[in-house]
Design a protein that fits this description.
This protein is an alpha/beta fold. Helices cover about 30% and strands about 25% of the residues. It has a 7-stranded parallel β-sheet with strand order 9-10-8-11-12-7-13, with helices on both faces. Strands 5-2-1-4-3-6 form a 6-stranded mixed β-sheet. A hairpin with a 2-residue loop joins strand 15 and strand 16. Helix 1 packs across helix 7 and helix 13 packs antiparallel against helix 15. The radius of gyration is 27 Å and the shape is globular. It binds zinc ion (ZN) (2 copies). One zinc ion binds next to loops. Its cofactor is Zn(2+). Keywords: ATP-binding, DNA replication, DNA-binding, Helicase, Hydrolase, Isomerase, Metal-binding, Nucleotide-binding, Primosome, Zinc. GO terms for molecular function: 3'-5' DNA helicase activity; ATP binding; ATP hydrolysis activity; DNA binding; zinc ion binding. It catalyses: ATP + H2O = ADP + phosphate + H(+); Couples ATP hydrolysis with the unwinding of duplex DNA by translocating in the 3'-5' direction.
Amino acid sequence: MNIFYYDVAIPIPIRETFTYECKESIQVGSRVLVEFRKKKVVGHIVKAVSKKPNFYTIQISEILDEEPIFKSNDIDILFWLADYYQHPIGEVFDTFCPPTLRKPVKRNIHSRNIQSEYKAFSNDKKVTLNKEQVESLEILNNLDGFDPCLLYGVTGSGKTEIYLRLTDTYLTKGKSVLILVPEISLTPQLEDRFVSRFGDNIGIYHSKKTAKQRYDIWERAQSGELKIVIGTRSAVLCPLNELGVIIVDEEHDQSYKQHEGFRFSARDLSIKRAQVEAIPIVLGTATPSLQTLRLVQEKKYKEAKLLKRANGFKPPGFITLDINDSQLESGIAKESLDAITNTLKENKQVLIFINRRGFSPLYECSSCRWIAECSSCDARLVFHHGLNRLICHRCDSAYGVPKKCPACNSSSLNLQGSGTERIELFLENYFEGTTIIRLDQDTTKKKGSLKEILEMVHKSESAILVGTQMLAKGHDFPRVELGIILNCDSGITSPDINSLEKISQLLIQVSGRVGRKENNGKVIIQTRYPEDKNLLELRSGDYLNFALNNLKQKKELRHPPYSAIALLRTTSPLAKHNINFLHQVNKSAKLKSDMSIIGPIPSIISKSRGNFRHHSIIQASSKIDLNKLIKNIIVLAGSWKETKKVKWYFDIDPIDYN
Ligand SMILES: [Zn+2]
Ligand SMILES: [Zn+2]
């Protein structure tokens, strides 16, 4: 009797696969039920083993799929992911398996060859393209094979119209299209545009959809019934049949990087997918990442440009407002308040950006300088007025608000500084009767609340919008004519290697929300560093020029994208355990002359949920070298006693250095 052997990936935090035996032949990419540590678990067949292993193997308990759920291309990509991010292979497979199929259930396979009709509604085609759009579309329509292309389009330049036309091109060829957005909140407006162009047979795939909805999209995409899928990170490997092109909207957006658990970049993964499937990929943005700009410069990526807004206007530049000698009211300068008054008089809307939610970020005693801090994190507590609680933004713990100072018993306790909530309350008083709309994590928690807020913005005439980064992302607010940026100074002065890239993108994105309908938009930056070289350079609103200069410096300094970086992070209840472990890494890792390890460094947030945090910055001149070095460290660390006392992980291509 024939016995077959297979390597199975099991969703556990171990970087290996396990060999099982089976009396039947199974296709690679199928799910099976296997016994592992006395439990039945769902695993994925990743490889057929040709020879009988020289160790004991257990029988596979059940074959769950008649047809593999992952094709051979997918398996190549998943192995690349596990290797590049040095993440356990079983967890990688699990991440890209729809939640329903993580359970031991059989699939209900859709009947194949469903003919679905897609036709662009002709009434929408009445939109005539301008010259730039025609030229860009021409470039994109002619991409062939693995052919990445940047679509650089200033805000309001009509990128979405280009996406729609490009999609039409591929549908006509019988191909399907995957469109990625960085955040769930951006799916509805794109969905609306696609539905009104192509009808409602469009799949929306993201983590707020139920497991059942996601599974349904997944099966319909694989069967070929769905030809358009719009989604976030989790949709990158959506198994669209006959995939023709991938469109990555807002490619620069840091939300494409998962910041917990499996820290992969969905943007980079989608590029890998395009490469493996040999198809074009379009990276759309008003503020290209330095990584993408470098590859355009080196002619590895093509480029299409939309430099003018579709209505012919240019996005506004910035006015810097020196606040060193200003009296601020809840963080807002007198000049800014006057500008708001004028804008409201003209029945227009104002957008106020502040990178901080809650009422006040600091609750302190004016007698002894005691400050309210979280007992398990190195974090100051933020006062939330609506909740009447002090909240830790690291671990979400809520504390009562003491009436007397716990240190000196004085009752002179004060709230310092402003967040969105305080500004909202202040504006409600100052501009009585004006609609004030707050957009942040706290006001959008409830399902459907974001949609309600956006509808309110569109319904209102004069209004003030107050919000965090959420305000800066891709939304279209046609009535906003004035933007005010309250605290970008920390971004300008931050020592992080990528802070300039982040802050320049943020400022340009905020200004992109302003003055979209008419040509008299204005953006004020309140700053204590009005002479800052970078602020002066950005003032014209010319992102590309700024970014190219930034890129030149990166090249001279050999910083990413001209080198590769990983953070090695450790956490433990005792700081010395972190330090000992990271010192051991320094002692043992084999570094070539172009590699370096800087650390141990206490992380900026040095304590979180009761654990101390430290990290080392590992740099190499290429991604391949970095990958080798990391593998070397992982092998070495397996035998150290220091390793057992810490939690540790690598963050490859980190975005967050805190
Ligand atoms: Zn005190
Ligand atoms: Zn905390």
